[in-house]
Amino acid sequence: MGIIDFFRKSKASTYDQNLDLAWMHTDMHSHLIPGIDDGSKTMEQSIDLIRRLESYGLKKIITTPHIMWEFYKNTPEIILNGLKKLRKELSINDIEIEINAAAEYYIDEFFFEKLKNGHQLLPVSENYVLVETGFINKPAILFDTFFEMELNHYKPILAHPERYYYLIGDKKTMHDLLDREIYFQLNLLSLTGFYSKEVKVFAEELVDEKRVKLVGTDCHNDRYLDALETLPKSKYYEKLQHLDLLNNTL
């Protein structure tokens, strides 16, 4: 074997890994309850997606449908009823992975009013609540919302901060969030370049600086998982596994 062939073989052996997420234990961000948001559309699709997630070595899923006033007017009752039906189908199909449900709340004035009025939220675990914002502009009520969540004894988890362009261009806001101990949840797909090069670079920066507390697939459909299976090609696949993550505590 020539030296060039040796290096080609070494590179191929590095890249040909199968996706193994056993180290992650729990996927705490996905959209797998059928027909209630922009995720899975049918029960059959949900079953197929969950079967794939289980094959990666995951032990638990906490699926998180959107609650977004203008588009997805879900409630805890709607989500938990969907979870009940999903669990029944998983049992029929002999899929044993543990599955729970929370919500991904969109930060806007409607969510802020829910907090002010003491509405009970659907947490990821204990008092951890997953929230998101728009991708371009920072909400004017961002910090007021986090303050109100804390007054109501909720611990905010900011979903996929690497995808927010207002954070990429505003490191002061990012550091203000970190100073407030807002937990950052990274989408694994961001490290594959699935969203954009800018998102990938920022995601890598957050990993390098150990800013990430939780990770998730944010799975919506098979296209997401097809892309996710390229993650072992990234050197950050190994780096992720050395972070002090909270996923296995959920």
Automatic annotation (TrEMBL):
Record has Hydrolase as a keyword: yes
Keywords in alphabetical order: Hydrolase
EC class (word): hydrolase
Documented EC number(s): 3.1.3.48
Gene3D superfamilies in alphabetical order: Metal-dependent hydrolases
Alphabetized InterPro entries for the sequence: Caps_polysacc_synth_CpsB/CapC, Pol/histidinol_Pase-like
Pfam families xref list: CpsB_CapC (PF19567)
Family: Belongs to the metallo-dependent hydrolases superfamily. CpsB/CapC family.
Name recorded for this polypeptide: protein-tyrosine-phosphatase
